[in-house]
Amino acid sequence: MTRRARWTGLTVSLRLQLLALLAALLIPLGVILLLLLPAFMNEKFNSIERTQVQQFSDIARANLHTEEDRVGLFVLNFSLWTETFEYAAGRNDRYLAANLVPGTFIGGKVDYWGIAAPGGRLLSAATLRDNRVVDATAIVTDFFASLPRPLPASGSAGVIRRGGQAYIVAARPITRDDGQGRGGVMLLARTLTPQVLQELTYQGQVFSAALSLTPVPETQVRFLEDRVRATSPLSAPSGPPQLALDLSIPRAVHAAGLIGAQQLRLTMLITTLIGVAAFMLFLNRRVLNVLDGYKRDTQRIARDPTHRLDGRDPTELGLLARTINALLDHLQEREGQLRDRSQRDELTGAFTRSGLLERLNNTPVRSALIVEVPRLQELSGLYGNAMVDTLLREITGRLGELGPQHVVARLSSSGLALITTGQDTPDPRVILRELERPFQLKDAEIPLKFTAGYVESPYAVPVPTLLRHANIALQHALDEREPIGLFNEEMLRMSQYGHLLEASLQGADTRGELSLLYQPIQNLQTGQWEAMEALLRWKHPTLGSVPPGTFIPVAERAGLIGTLGEWALRCAVQDARNAQRIAPLRVNVNVSPIQLLSPDFAARVLEILRELHAPPTLLTLEVTESSVMQNVDLACRHLEDLRAAGVRIALDDFGSGHSSLALLADLPLDTVKLDRSFLRDSARGGTRGALLGSAIRLAGDLGLHTVAEGVEDEAMLQMLRDFECGAAQGYHLARPERLEELLGRLQAIRPR
Fold it and tell me: What are the residue boundaries of the GGDEF domain, all occurrences included (predicted)?
């Protein structure tokens, strides 16, 4: 009895300890599951939804701002027009009959038209109603009243409210074609109906947007039972916002999160109960055996993720095993979805680089084609990001039409790859021709010329090797300005040579390997040298003289062009200062696109001039059209700051590519350097040569100095004189020389 009593007492004591232990475990767990976890997850879901609705609101407002810019550009077409200027001055009676027609409203997607005289008097106010142009004086007068006083030279645009209706209004001062004069104000407006708003903001099932007549000072987010709503201000042409954009999204994340939280809590609860039952029955060897079996299964799962726990046990342990198996199945399925998503480009659906490598890890590969899509930034500026996204999807779709034996991947923002897994290798030129068929995007037909690199092998090779070789071929095509590069061993050697040059360029300026040659520019009216162009040269200690066309692209790719360009600028300015004792020559220095588009380019140039105590008028910077077009706003800011300080700006290689005559009027320029192809084609009687005289006359009309490059004989020189070109340079006049030799020749030919 004594031993039994002791055993009973011991049993009771352990039970109390067990209950205390369970209470210590279950009470905090219940607090976490029932109180803390739901509150925490609810806050997280609210944060996600707040971010989502703000992002969609920003996108919708950006789309509205894009429409404002479009209406503003349409206004610009009329305001920057001498005929409009003359009408505003009362000297063009036929203007309205020719321009205030239904086609103006329909083609420009605007609803209201207004022109005010320089004194503010309303000259014309109209709208399109039933395909007829009718008077709209009252509302157009209200539109003019909403504009800032005075109206800035760049115009003004925004969203305003009149009564219960919203309008997009844009206005600009009226000037002549050359931007001179102040001839009143041109205004266009578009009614912002719900249909127009839906069209502009691309509403779908993800979000809905509407206009609120109650403006707010900043974005406000409200959580409703089934939706999240963000109200954001829409800027007016002047003054505080008059309208707000009301954007809402369904609370799908929150609803799914609550279900997930409930499932998580349920799973944790079941797991806890099973654990408690197992702990209470720990003396049962069958439980220990099952747990041992689970231990073996989990160890096997670590090696083989497809293995599952043995769930045949009828007790809670079996339920635990089946629940864990279900979770493992769900996690494995989710992991597969995430892996597939990570392997696919979200925009185009093509494989990513990592997805491509995993997809073709054990697949024989014979050829690879890498295509570089050109001018994406320019096209984005012209047509908008959405149109460029559509373009990329169309290009990827065309590559995908080649058949299942080809795998398409997007390697970068502008690089696509086509990998052939079959035995037959494709003809890359045929693929490129098919790819270059014009793209129809809405009302615009966009022609593109791609650059590609192609490699094929008679036997299967690893995909990374093929991609490296195709990239080498692509870089060769870009450097040589060819449509396609076909990989060969010589390209590989040249690529290795380029890497050698890249390593050797490090510190070339401090080792004294760089030098400058100068080619004079002759004024064709006076016959005197007016400037000299600085040309960078590099003499490698073992490789000898490396051509600029070889090492400058290497320096740009390696990020060294900034150092080399600054060295050349310093030396050229210092040499020009020294040359002033003999002749008042300016020095022309070429600017790389990478230099031009650096944030502190203008400030750095002016700082170098101050350090060298050189007047800014001594320097002319030569920029190319292609470098300016990469970021027109930033480039123009730099060029305007430099010109304001006295530095002259020259547009180099004009006419060598897709040159735009509008650039001559829009860019802050002093000089236009005509590409040598103009002169060479003229001398041969080519069709492009007919543009030479027109380009010179146009530049003269715009007050720009013209310099023709590539003068090779006296006939070319005479032709330029006949066209009244300002200046010329070329081998017929003088070859590039060291400064000492150039100044010596100058002293020899100067009249005594």
Answer: 364-489
